[in-house]
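Assess the record.
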Amino acid sequence: MSPISLHNGVKESQGQRMDAENKAPVYLEGATSPKGSTQDEGVRPPHDPLSWPKWKRNTQILMIAVHSMVSTFMAAGIVPAYDTFAEMYGVSVHTVTYLTSTQILLLGIAPFVWKPLTTRFGRYHICVLSVLGSFLCNIGGARCTTFGTQMATRVITAWFISPPIAIGSGVVTELCSKDERAQKIGWWTLLTTIGVPAGPFIMGFVVQHIGVEWVFWLFAIINFCQFVAYILFGKETLYPRDLEGNLEPPKAPSFPRSIFPHRIDPRPVTATDFISPMFLCRFPRILVPSLAYAITFAYANIVIVVEMPTAFGKKFNFNAQQIGYQFVAIIIGCVLGEQISGRMSDSFIRLLKRRRGHAAPADRLWLSYIGFATVFAGLLTWGFQLQNATTWNVTPCVGAAIASFGNQILTTTLITFAVDSHKEVSTDIGMFVNICRQIYGFTGPFYLPLMFERFGLGGAAGIFCAIVAGSALVPIIAIQFVATRKP
C-alpha cells in the first residue's frame, strides 16, 4: 500500500469514528446490522428474536395474525344481526350498517395512536392491553339496550382491538428472513382477510339459533382466550438494533418483571411519530402497491361481503344462517389464493436467485397478474350470475371464490413487495397499507347501493373491474417496469 493511500485510509477511518461519536444511536424496527457485523455472520445474542427457535417465532406470528383476524371478524360479525338490531333499537337497517362502517374507519385510524407506543414499549404489552380492553367492551355490547350505547361499545372495541392489524408486517420482518417473508406475511394477510367473511359465516348460526346477544358474548370469550394465549406463549418481538453498532440492545427482563410494561426504546415520543406513516406516500414502491391493494380489496372483498346479506336475503328470502353459508366461498378462495402468493412467491424468488444470482423485490409482481385476471373473472361471474338468477344456484358463489382467490394473491404479493423494497419501515408500511384500505373501504356504503340500484349487480361488477384495471393494474405494470430497471 502506498503512503498516500495509507494516509487517506487513516483520515477516512478517523472521520468515520468522529461521525459515529457525534451521531446519536438510531433504533429502527426490523433493521439489520451492517455487513461484517457479528449478526451478519450468524452470531446473535440469545435474546435477539431472530435467534429464537423456529416454533417460537412462528407462534408469535400466528398470535399476531389471529389477533388481526379477530379485529375484522368482530367488525363484520354483526352483519347477520342487522335486521334484529333494527327491530331492537327502533332504527332502519341502513342506520345499523354504521355499526360496521364506523369500526372499519376506526381500524384504519386508531393504529396511528398505538404505533408510537408499540415502538417505545414493545408489541407484547400493547397486545395484552388490546384484548383486555376489547373483552370488557364486548361484555358491555351484550348488555346494551339502545343504539347509541351499542355504537359507543363498537367504537371503543375497534379502538382497542386495532394495534395488530397495522403492526403485523413489522412483527414478521423482526422474526423472518427475506426468503420466508412472503409466506409469513401471507399468514397475517390471509387471516386478516378471512376475518371479514368468517365473522358473518359463524355469527349467522349464532343469531339464528342462540340469540343476538351471544354474538358479543362469543366475542368476549375469544378475547379472553387471546389474553390467556399471550400470557402463556407471548414474547416481546421488538429488538432495537443500533445501526452504528455503538450500543448493545438491552436484555429482556425475566419473569415476573416481563409481564409489566417497561420502556424498550429510550427515544421520546414526538408528534411526528403519530403521523410518520403518512410520509411514506413519497415512496412510489409503497404508495402504488398500497393504493392498488386498497382499491382491489374494496371491490373483490368488501363489496361481496357487504352485498351478500342484501342480495341473497331479498332475492332468495334467506335467513341469517343460510346467508352465512354463502361466505364459505370467500374463505375457500382466500385459502387457495394464499398457496400461490405465499409459499410459491418465496419459491419463485429462490429459483431466480439460483439462476441469476440475485432477485429483486419487483420480481414478486409477476404473480400479481394472476391475481388481477382472477379478480376480473370472479367479479363478473358473481355480478352477472347473481343478477340473472331466479332461484339459488352455486355460480355466484363460485364467482365470489374466484375473486377472493385473486384478491388474496394480490394482498400478499403487493404488501411483500412494499416491505422488501423498504423493510427498514416495515411497521409503518403495514399502517400505511391499512389506512389506505380502511378509508377506501369506508367510503363504499355511501355510493355502492346507488350503483347497484342504477346499473344492477352485473353492470356494477363491470365498473368495478374497469376501476381496478385503470387504478391498480396499470400502475402496478408501471412500477414493475421502473423498479426492474432501477433497483
Observations:
- The chain has one domain: 52-235+275-485.
